[in-house]
Structures are given as structure tokens and as C-alpha cells.
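Reply to dn_fold:

You asked what the input looked like. This is it:
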Amino acid sequence: MPASGLRRPAPHFNHNFGDVNNGNTSKDVSQILTNTLALNTSGPLAGRVNTGIGVGVSGHSLGGMVTHGLLTSWPDQRIVSANPQSCVDMGNPSSSVTAEVLFVHGDRDSTTSYSSARQAYSEIR
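and this is what came back:
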């Protein structure tokens, strides 16, 4: 716990493709959402976090993959908006995605495949 006594909801993320690819990072983000929303119950943010409207997620590259994973392979139903940027396909949605989703990807991206991002886009209905 930090010296101030306040709990921080988010861990430090590394750039570990394995943890992103196997869902560990997406699952960590779901836990972060739980921790953040819980700040509404006590402490300096008690009663100040609107927990009824859902949450938005966004990420670029590995973060885009994490974001897409939260919609597909490791879904978090609290997500109402998502912005996966320069991501690759992390799997088909297990059910209908109800979040508003905006994909962003450059067609000259030499790191993440544009065709994989198009595949991810085509699977979101």
C-alpha cells in the first residue's frame, strides 16, 4: 500500500506478449475495473464514482489486443464502449457484443497485421 494509505486500483503492466495472448492481462484489467468501481464504497471517492453507466476501455497495440480480448475471449459485460487500436484478432465473441466499438488501424502498420485487425472488426456485429 502506498505511504498515503490509498489503494491504487491498477498494477504496472509489462510488455509481455504471452500474458496478453493467454488472457492474463485482459483478466487483470477486469480486476482493475472491479477495484476502481469499489472505490465508490469507501474512502475519498465514496459516492463519487458513477457505477451504473458502464465503463470504456481503450488500448494501442498490445493494449488494443487486451481491449479486443475484453470483448471476445475474456469478455467483461461492464464494458459499454471500446477502442482497440492497432490490434490483432484475439478471437470470436462468445456472444453478441453490446458495447459500442471503434477500431483504429493504419494500413501501413508494419508491426500488427492490418488483415488481422480487419478480421477482428468483421467478427464484431
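The CA atoms of residues 9 and 35 lie 5 Å apart.
Hope that clears it up.
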